[in-house]
Design brief:
The chain is α/β, with parallel strands linked by helices. The protein has 15 helices and 14 strands. Among the domains are: 37 residues, no CATH class; 249 residues, Type I PLP-dependent aspartate aminotransferase-like (Major domain) (Aspartate Aminotransferase, domain 2).
């Protein structure tokens, strides 16, 4: 494929935007080459500036669960835009989506809308610290909770991609209050609680990790975290920015049957517009200003365009619960197809999947945490990524990212993907 227009646009962008992108993974540094620039998208497909079409397996990194240009969302945004794009004043829309979100997700009474998943996770931790009067938190190696300082301590995703999990600019004072644990290792978490008795405000975790590839929790792991938090008067925070309203109507809490104390949302809840949120039981949320002492604010939080898009998306999902089964079935079909093709090759691999999240790791070791994820053959992944790209399949440009299917993808699209997969493997 020729990417002349994309290459020219990238060169132009680098003159005025750091690295030419507004989010680092987009720069293709993990896989090499020039990133493609998208002109438009519809349904399951992306169309780049050079006129190529791609089957999309990132879905804007998760939010477009029903495909690009989903008509009810587009129409809701258009209708609201005619009435104004932002007021900085309360609207009825905010209450409507709050009522719907709290009815769909278990174990939450109140929700506060913000502008990103990063902001949601940052605010959730501040709330947990204020509620418990403690300062330390536990996070897990390879889990990514946005780019707030407290979370850039051995994070996954883009931070790992660039080999710089501890970003310059993060102070030692911040780092000392962030305790690192190993994902799927409850004994390790127990040791941290014993060594920091009475000091831990919260444990924050992706209940299904998506930033070191897709890594589901092992049986008993989340239940073990719930028990430890209960025993130590510590709040359990589920970062459901990826999993919320995707794995099930009630997210990972519903699918896996484990309750969190605070839940963060993003992606799907915004219908493709920048939205984040955090939610909890009433007694916790009432610690937030203006009712409580924990300050949090945002000029564009709850803006009417984002609320209109999010309300349309959640309404569609609430009225069509079969979507979650449809997505899971399509992802399972992709999984089985990939496994059948790989089994006939000499390539080492692991495939992890839960619901509509899936990832392929080029390793012979089971991938259950950050250490095992990092053992993957990244040179092979690079060849794999570009082989699929030239055959019209857009995958995450990093071995440390989950694929996100959308329900606009057809079984014919998946068969086309599997044909491209078979051809690409022969080149590896």
């Amino acid at each position: 494929m020729r990417y002349n227009r994309s290459s020219a646009l990238f060169a132009q962008a680098k003159k005025v935007i750091p690295g030419g992108v507004n989010s680092p993974v987009r720069a293709f540094k993990a896989v090499g080459g020039t990133p493609i620039f998208i002109k438009k998208a519809k349904g399951a497909y992306l169309f780049d500036e050079d006129g190529h079409r791609y089957i999309d397996y990132i879905s804007s990194w998760g939010p477009l669960i029903l495909g690009h240009g989903y008509k009810p969302v587009v129409e809701a945004v258009q209708k609201q835009a005619d009435k104004g794009t932002s007021y900085g004043i309360p609207t009825a829309l905010e209450t409507k989506i709050a009522e719907l979100a709290t009815s769909m997700a278990p174990n939450i009474d109140k929700i506060r809308f913000v502008n990103s998943g990063t902001e949601a996770c940052m605010s959730a931790v501040r709330l947990a610290r204020g509620y418990t009067s403690r300062e330390k938190i536990i996070k897990f190696s390879g889990c990514y909770h946005g780019h707030s300082d407290a979370f850039l301590i051995q994070a996954g995703s883009g931070a790992v991609t660039f080999g710089s999990p501890n970003s310059p600019g993060v102070t030692q004072g911040t780092a000392k209050d962030t305790l690192l644990a190993n994902y799927n290792d409850i004994d390790n978490v127990t040791q941290l609680f014993e060594a920091n008795e009475g000091e831990i405000a919260a444990v924050i975790i992706e209940p299904v990790a998506g930033n070191m590839g897709c890594i589901p929790p092992e049986p008993g792991f989340l239940e073990g975290l719930r028990y430890l938090c209960d025993q130590n008067d510590t709040l359990l925070i589920f970062d459901e920015v990826m999993t919320g309203f995707r794995l099930a109507a009630g997210g990972a809490q519903q699918l896996l049957g484990v309750d969190a104390d605070i839940v963060t949302f993003g992606k799907v809840i915004g219908g493709g517009l920048p939205v984040g949120a955090f939610a909890a039981r009433e007694e916790i949320m009432d610690f937030l200003a203006p009712e409580g002492p924990v300050y949090q604010a945002g000029t564009l939080s709850g803006n009417p365009l984002a609320m209109a898009a999010g309300l349309a998306m959640l309404t569609a999902l609430d009225s069509q619960p079969e979507v979650f089964d449809s997505l899971a079935d399509k992802t399972a079909y992709l999984h089985e197809g990939m496994k059948n093709i790989l089994s006939k090759s000499r390539i080492d691999y692991q495939i992890n999947r839960l619901g509509s999240m899936i990832s392929l790791h080029f390793t012979d070791t089971a991938v259950k945490d950050f250490t095992s994820a990092a053992k993957g053959n990244n040179k092979r992944f690079t060849k794999y990524f570009h082989g699929m790209l030239k055959r019209g399949v857009y995958l995450p440009p990093s071995a440390f990212e989950s694929y996100f299917l959308n329900d606009a993808i057809s079984y014919k699209d998946i068969d086309t993907t599997l044909q491209a997969f078979s051809e690409t493997l022969k080149e590896l």
